[in-house]
Design goal:
heterotetramer, A: about 80 residues, alpha+beta, Ubiquitin-like (UB roll), B: about 150 residues, Aldehyde Oxidoreductase, domain 3
C-alpha cells in the first residue's frame, strides 16, 4: 500500500522530513504496526517513536488510536500531543 | 446558526468578530468571547511559533464546533486560530459564542477551548529573548483533565 | 490588578475595553468577555428601560469585583453596566476578566455575571413595539440558583 | 429618627414617589418593623409592600435582611428583586 506520511513539531524534526510517500507492506495493518515498521527502517524513526505512547496519529485528518486500521488511508500523520489554544 | 472558522497567519480584530456574530440580529442575549494571548513568561520569550497541520486544523475545529452546536442552543459560533510567529501580548486564539441566555454561551465557549486545546493540531515552540530557538511547549496534563470533564455530560 | 467599573448611560466599545485591560502587558494569557444584549423577544419589544440606584449600583459592582479578585488570581477586571433606554441588539452589560490561565478568567466572568444579576440594583422595564410601556421584568429564579452555586465554593 | 427613604421600579410606582424624608418613631428598630410602620401609613405603602417577602432593602447602599437594625441609617432603599445584567 502506498501512503503519504506527514510529521509535525518534534516528530518532524526527529524524522528529519515533513512528509514522505511510503510503500507499506500488506501485512502492516494498523497504526501501531506502522509505527513498529517505521522504527525498523532507521534510527531517525526509532528516535521519533522512542516513547510510542506519546506520539499521536491521524488518518486523513481524523484523530485515531493505535489499533486503527490503515486500509484505505491516503495520508497518515504523526505528531506530539497538541499545544494550541 | 452562523458558524465562522478561520485558521490564519494574520491577527484578528475581536470587535469585528463580535460584530459579525451579532450583525442584523436582535434575538441574541449573550455573547462570550475567549481570547488567548502570547505571554512573555517574565521576559524569557521573544515569541511563540505555532506550527499547524493545514487541512486537519480546519477540519478538527469544525468537528469541535459541530459538537458544541449539538450540545447547546447557540445562535452563532466563531473560532479563529493563528499560526506562525506570535509576539507577546498578541492574540493566538479567539472563541466567541452567541446564545439567548448566558449559561449556554459560557459553557460552549469553555467546552470549545478545552476541546480545542487537546484536539486541534497546533504545536507551540518557544523563541527566546536571547535570540535562540527554544523548546517545543509540552502539553499540560490539566488540559486533558479539562477536556475529559465534558465526556460525562 | 487593573479594576474598571462604570455605570453609564452611553454605549461602550468592547474592543476598547479589552485593549485597556491588556494594554502594555505581556503576562496575560487569557481574556474572557461576557456581553449582555437587549433582545427584541420576537419583535415584541421596542426597547428595555434600565432603572438603577445611583451610588449603590457602583458600590455593589465594586463589592462583587472585590469578591472575584479575592477568589481568583486575576490581572484585570472590567464591569460596565448601562442604564436608561437600550434598543434591541444594543449592549446592556460587559464583564471582562484577564488572567494567566483560562480557568480563572472563565470562572471569574461567570461568577461576576451570576452575582451581578442578583445583587446589582438595576431593574428592567419593557417598552413594547406598539408604543405602550410594558411591565417590569420579573427576576428569574434560575438567576438565584446560578448565584447560589458560588456560595459553597 | 429622621431618615431618607428611596424607592425603585414598581415599589417606587406603587408608593408614588422616588424618595421622601421620614420621621421614624424610636420604637421602629428594624427593616421589618419599618415596613410594618410604613404599611400603617397609607394604602400606597400597603400596596407596595403587600408581599413583604418580595421587596428587598438596602441601608446606605448595602443589601440588608429584614432583621437589620436601622440605628445610624441615613438612607434606606426598597426595591423589587433586581433584574440587571
Amino acid at each position: 500500500m502506498q501512503v503519504k506520511l506527514v510529521y509535525f513539531a518534534w516528530v518532524r524534526e526527529r524524522v528529519g522530513r515533513p512528509d514522505e510517500t511510503a510503500e507499506v507492506p500488506a501485512e502492516v495493518a494498523t497504526v501501531a504496526e506502522l509505527v513498529r515498521w517505521l522504527k525498523s527502517r532507521g534510527e531517525e524513526y526509532a528516535y521519533a517513536f522512542e516513547n510510542e505512547g506519546v506520539v499521536r496519529a491521524a488518518i486523513d485528518h481524523v484523530h485515531v488510536q493505535p489499533d486503527a486500521a490503515l486500509a484505505g488511508a491516503r495520508e497518515i500523520a504523526f505528531f506530539p500531543p497538541m499545544t494550541g489554544g | 446558526m452562523s458558524l465562522t472558522i478561520h485558521v490564519q497567519r494574520e491577527s484578528f480584530d475581536i470587535a469585528d468578530e463580535i460584530a459579525a456574530l451579532t450583525a442584523g440580529r436582535s434575538d441574541i442575549g449573550a455573547v462570550v468571547t475567549f481570547t488567548g494571548l502570547c505571554r512573555d513568561e517574565a521576559g524569557r520569550l521573544a515569541a511563540l511559533e505555532l506550527e499547524h497541520y493545514a487541512g486537519m486544523a480546519e477540519a478538527e475545529l469544525r468537528r469541535v464546533a459541530e459538537e458544541a452546536r449539538q450540545r447547546w442552543s447557540l445562535q452563532g459560533l466563531t473560532i479563529i486560530h493563528r499560526f506562525g510567529m506570535v509576539a507577546p501580548g498578541e492574540t493566538i486564539v479567539l472563541v466567541a459564542t452567541a446564545s439567548v441566555h448566558r449559561g449556554a454561551a459560557f459553557a460552549a465557549a469553555e467546552f470549545l477551548m478545552d476541546y480545542l486545546k487537546t484536539r486541534a493540531p497546533f504545536w507551540k515552540r518557544e523563541h527566546l529573548a536571547d535570540g535562540r530557538t527554544g523548546d517545543w511547549v509540552e502539553a499540560a496534563a490539566h488540559d486533558d483533565v479539562a477536556a475529559a470533564r465534558w465526556r460525562t455530560i
